[in-house]
Design goal:
The protein has helices at residues 14-25, 37-46, 68-72, 87-94, 119-126, 141-145, 159-169, 182-204, 209-229, 240-251, 256-265, 270-277, 282-297, 302-312, 317-326; strands at 7-10, 30-33, 48-49, 53-57, 62-65, 77-80, 103-106, 132-136, 150-155, 174-179. The chain has 336 residues and is of the alpha/beta class. Helix 5 (119-126) links the parallel strand 7 and strand 8. Helix 8 (182-204) packs parallel to helix 11 and helix 11 packs antiparallel against helix 12 (270-277).
């Protein structure tokens, strides 16, 4: 397909706006969809999207639209950047507007409540899309929008999906790597958010660098165990979607999930913590799915379990840490 064919980005939050801007800066026309008509008018008239990305002036090639069918019509690639719990609703709306020739890639990091399904599974169920991919990595939108160097991985079982998405996004400030392990990339992207909540608690409690590293590393081991049980490649956990994303999400002041953990450790309720952030922290709902997946797969995940108990069982962060430290240890690396 010609490079002048438009690209549709569905979701005008901070990450969706940033991806649209990157694609526009690479010379591709972009249609950025938002259901909020006031937000669309603001983007079109000012080139700014202050509700999502303060300070970012969007590329002139980015045009906002509140009509989803019009946004995706004729688009060579459709990129979905919506909260995990909104994915099914959005893809249901999208279904009639898509054709089987269009590539669909998502950049959402979460699991659907109750079904515990990954985002690519929902896209496949609700649309006619055949060529599906996922974007994930240590991608703090504010830094990338400001031009700081970063990298991501695009995973799909279709090489063309990876190649086309890489051509849209790659630049001298944004490195795009290829992957084929969709399951591993999606589970890493979702489950690391739960570990980031634990990391935020640890930061606020001043547990020290050794304990922080212990918690994050054990969290990675639990993510690996769950992902491997679904057939993910263990090497994916060592890549940008695994260790890379986990590092930044567990440390960055921009990480919503980290900030939720910090607020809980300071004594805020879950409702207060989420309200203060004002944006979706995917780890809050993914903690429920993570617990259910671990139970179904009969996998021991003490760190993920303790985060769930803090969020929904009334356990204090300090008590959760003490319980973790008292638990019996096993092998350091499960497959060693």
């Amino acid at each position: 397909m010609s490079c002048v064919e438009p690209v549709a980005v569905i979701g005008a939050g901070n990450w969706g706006s940033t991806l649209a801007h990157l694609i526009g800066e690479n010379g591709f026309p972009v249609r950025l969809w938002s259901r909020d008509e006031a937000q669309v008018r603001e983007i079109e008239s000012t080139r700014q999207n202050p509700r999502a990305m303060l300070g970012l002036t969007l590329s002139e090639r980015v045009h906002a639209d509140a009509d989803m069918a019009r946004a995706v019509s004729g688009a060579s690639v459709v990129i979905l950047v919506v909260p995990a719990q909104a994915m099914r609703e959005v893809t249901c709306q999208l279904g009639d507007a898509l054709s089987t020739e269009q590539i669909v890639v998502h950049a959402s990091k979460g699991l659907e409540l109750r079904s515990n399904k990954r985002m690519s599974q929902i896209i496949a169920e609700e649309t006619c899309a055949k060529r599906i991919g996922v974007i994930a990595g240590p991608n703090i939108a504010a830094e990338i929008g400001a031009g700081s160097p970063a990298g991501t991985v695009v995973a799909s079982r279709f090489p063309e999906v990876v190649h086309r998405t890489k051509r849209l996004l790659a630049s001298n400030r944004f490195m795009v790597f290829a992957g084929s392990d969709v399951i591993g990339v999606e589970l890493c992207g979702a489950l690391k958010n739960v570990v980031a909540i634990a990391a935020g608690m640890a930061t606020a409690m001043n547990v020290g660098e050794n304990a922080f590293a212990l918690l994050v590393t054990r969290g990675l081991a639990e993510i690996t165990a769950i992902a491997a049980s679904f057939g993910a490649t263990p090497g994916t956990l060592a890549g940008l979607a695994g260790v890379g994303d986990l590092m930044v999400t567990c440390r960055s002041k921009h990480s919503r999930n980290h900030r939720v953990g910090e607020a809980l450790a300071r004594g805020d309720s879950l409702e207060e913590a989420v309200r203060a952030i004002g944006m979706v922290a995917e780890g809050v709902t993914t903690a429920i799915a993570a617990r259910e997946l671990a139970e179904q797969r009969q996998i021991r995940t003490p760190l993920l379990e303790q985060v769930h108990r803090v969020l929904y069982g009334g356990l204090s962060p300090s008590a959760a840490l003490e319980e973790l430290l008292r638990m019996p240890t096993g092998r350091d690396v499960a497959w060693s």
